[in-house]
Fold this sequence. Notes:
Layout: H1 17-29, H2 41-54, H3 58-78, H4 93-96, E1 102-103, E2 105-110, E3 116-121, H5 127-133, H6 136-161, E4 167-172, H7 180-187, H8 190-202, E5 207-213, H9 220-226, H10 234-237, E6 238-240, H11 246-252, E7 271-272, H12 288-293, E8 295-299, E9 304-311, E10 317-324, E11 327-335, H13 342-350, E12 359-368, E13 374-379, E14 384-391, E15 400-410, E16 413-417, E17 423-425
Parallel strand pairs: 3-4, 4-5, 5-6
Antiparallel strand pairs: 1-7, 2-3, 8-15, 9-14, 10-13, 10-15, 11-12, 11-14, 15-16, 16-17
Amino acid sequence: FFEMTRITTDFGQSLSLESKKRVAEVRAQLKEKIHPQFDTDFNIYRFVINSERLHKKEKEVIDFAAKALNNHLRIRKAFKLDTTPVKTFDENPVFTRKFMPRGDIQVDMVDKHNRLMWYIEYASVTVETLAHTEKSSSSVKFQFWQFEYMLRLVMAQEAKTGRLSSLHHIIDMAGYEINPFTMLFVSSGTLSYYTQLFHYENYPELVSPGSMVNIARWIWLPYKLVKPVMPAGFADRFQLHDSSFITWLKEEVAEEHIPVSLGGKNTEIKCIPAEKKSEDEYWKPKDNALLDALETIHVHARKKKHIRVDVNEVGKKISWYFRTDGDVYFGIFFVEGSGESIEDAKKEKKEEIDTEEMEMVYPYWKLTAKLVHERDELVCEKTGRYYLVFGNEHSWLTKRGVDLIVNVEKGDTKRRVHTDNSLSPSSLDF
């Protein structure tokens, strides 16, 4: 017999003694530093409750929660989430450029479980606009900004009430139409990856539940497609309601906190629709000379490949440009020390490096640089060795091709780092 577990604190409750005990045990296992601003019992408990839903034995609950939180703390540090001002919805390009519909979080309206209400309409959602106009890393970055801002609002509610909170997300599906691109987004695993990345790995239990209302019958087709590849508990967190949802909703939240469009009495709650871009606004590569100069590497299934950059001066800038023939993981990791020869570098390339033991300085995310090519830069704050890592661990059979260029520069001096780690003068800008 194994030891059964349960959710030790539910939304709207103060943390139980058992929850506080588990929070303390997770804290004791943390390897990464936790910033004082983020270091609240509720924030740690969000990782515990996610683990409580997935595991039965107490040790498994603690171990899984600690590992997930450690990974999140690495990303927080790499992304500077605790040391730079958080972007509000007014500053987030996903809303200012109307890539997604915007519904503001109602910080003065809660359901019966102390969860802030967040209403949105999906009729205007067009996945292809964002996919054709923004690089994949920006899409992920914008969502991190969005979730971090939402977390701060929930943290303020918890500080005010002393009780566990989250966002109760009501998504009005009336008028939403699916198209082939959206089906591809669902069936390719991209939707599953984003759900895993935000709702499970980095901001667990922050949006809980997500309730879709006014769903049409055809929605069951993509739902059945995506449900088997989603993590455990997906159906509990993302609930579907047809047009007769209002009785259920009124049991959860007062009529005054439900918009008129959904049968409530609130005339103030609005949703700003997304805007579909025309094809002539889609991103296109401009520099054929740059594309002709790209070097190609292949990342085999279940493997990683890396390019190494030794930096001996603070303030140097590493910049990169790449396109892919499918989705790959990409991130940058750092270790102190440098100076090996090219021969050592070649030898090192044949061996897998252990990124788990390195400092993550550019978040390791799954990107698709097919429709929009990736280009970005990193200003080096420390001297040492930087590894640009491409990962294909998620693929069992298919290798990935990456066409790329990497520069390292300071002032007027710019050098290209080749795939064999050799250097040459560079005049290419991107």
